[in-house]
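Hello K.,

You asked for the raw outputs rather than the summary table, so here they are, unedited. I folded two proteins back to back in the same session to keep the settings identical. This is the first:
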Amino acid sequence: MKFTRKITRRQFGLGAAATSAGIVLPSAARADLSADAEKALYEAAKADSEVTWYDAHHHVELAELYGKAFNTKYPGVKVNVVRTTANIAYQRVAQEIKAGSLQCDVLSSTDISHSMDLKTKGLLEKFTPANAATVIPALQNADPDGFFHVTSTGTIAVTYNSGKVKPVDVPKKWTDLVDPKWKDQVSVGHPGFSGYVSIWVYEMDRLYGWQYFEKLKANNPQIGRSIQDTLTMLRSGERMVAAGSTSTAFESKVKGEPIDVAYQEDGTIVVVAPSCILKGAKKPNAAKLFMEFMSSPAASQIAVDAFGESIHAAIKPKAGLPLDQLKTIIAKPPLLLKAQPELKEKWRETFGV
């Protein structure tokens, strides 16, 4: 898969408002799935009656919102939403496959190496949603063979408690987090649980070597599981700065909370997150319909309304700087897949968790 190092907000564009009755999309953001094909797939999905979705892309409330939107659009096909961190979802799928009792139909991980590994082992169903053709070109063909597809993107930057951190002290580079001035004030997630965090760890190690984390340890960071745990620590005032998700930070800021985002001079990390259908899924047609939905502009609108990124060019942003004004970092999937096991082990050895 080939990703560009710089992705413009024009490519990443996000747009029009959702209404209580449904999602209103600009004409340029219509789904590519034809009415006849959608009707046929919907009828087949109704025979399945439900689909089980393991989701690490979104926080709990947002995951449930996706499920509700799908249920409203396709009555008679229920989404069983199982929201968890990426690595827990992946481990759970692996355990189910080993036990011969697969429960998951669609897996949405924030760590693309999970999809790559499952594909390599022959554990994915090949399916390319028609709506995948509507995704911005930079994110299409994540897997040229059609076993997994990008259904979400996100960004990681320094997030902070603006009520406690003076503007002059806001970290400008990732290396600022290991400055002794932030001892007992840093919050991070855990790469053994969170796909976002595992990608952040990979990029920090690639840029600065493992000594970065040895210095971070000296600052006694508070380590949660999900990257969303960092926001909890900032809200409570237990920590002042974090390596966090920009979407939930901007959402909190708009609500009036003392939370803000600082894009780092050495790079804003872009997380490219795919979804896939498990081979042997119990509800294959419902899974395909759900993949169509997650690849559609309507799904992007839900993300944008929650201050996230879109995978469709016609959907406009709510918050944050245009990505073409930022230095962006995107991990190369093959290298990420190769590096993950060793990095997670080194993390446990260094931090003892």
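The second followed immediately with the same parameters:
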Amino acid sequence: MKKRIEILFTAAALLLSMLAGCADSAENSSTESSTPSSTTSESSSSSEESSQTEEESAFPVTITDASGREVTIEEEPETLVSGYYITTSMLIALGEEDKLVGVEAKANTRPIYSLAAPELLELPSVGTAKEFDLEGCAALEPDLVILPLKLKDSVSALEDLGIQAITVNPEDLSLLEETITMLGKATGATETAEKLLAFNEETQDKLDSLLKDVEKPTVYLGGNSSFLSTAGAAMYQNTLIELGGGANVAAELTDTYWAEVSYEQILEWNPQVIIIVPEAGYTKEDVLADAQLAEVDAVKNKQVYEMPSAFEAWDSPVPSAMLGSLWMAATLHSDVYSTEDFQKDVADFYQEFYGFTADTAQLAE
């Protein structure tokens, strides 16, 4: 009996020992199993930190502005002043409008501000290219000021006051794209700038494909201040016409600004189509009723059109300038690019880059 009891005690001890071993093994297995998860979590956290560090390390950046100056921006600007409507619109497209503390004069005349960033209408004005308010701009203490090339002397004055400034000169398609790249880099919005540039390239390719076999009508473009002012080959408006499938009758002119011409010259050119730029001081009806233009083919055939002005002046090198060429294509070649397609392209652009739903019915007015 005594021996049986000893055997039972020995068996029980062995069983307890085995159970303890299994528990240790399970615990070790659990620990080992959790280690990769912990490592993965640490790796993910490290990756996020690395990504954040890369974003932060985008600065300092060095850019070359329109006046040829190399400018190094040490930190991402938190406050901006734009003294030029083209760059103000560009900053909205880049998603940087919340950084603006001052803008050019007459902001309330720019429909795109009301539609995409109405808060800009309440910002202080820093004047115009002709009458820049240097003291008012300096009082805003911005981290970076963006001015047209015409105000390069003001840039020097601002920097004497310890305020960093750059100049831009988006006077043709190539320079517009350079400006988009420059502002994207200067403000830390390079990714959006690349998307905007991609849109431009895709739109040019689209127009080239759509219009490769069309016959290009001759076009006269009437300027803002007077119907007798027009754009030659050196101006952005020439690109607007050509990309849209037209032939600019004034391409022979070498002026780098709006050129004044005579009725006799227009009669000699005899354009098939007349386009009136947005915000012109005259109307289509004025042109059709002008007795001195009665013998022009465009007038005789009532091929006179006003460019839309509901959103922006698409005859200018603004970020949405490609929409001007799309409008031109829809106007001159509706058989290959319809008004409906054009309106959809406009709506898609403004939704993506300006964040509002465009009322494209205004484009038919």
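The chain has two domains: 61-188, 199-364.

Happy to rerun anything if the numbers look odd on your end.

Regards,
P.
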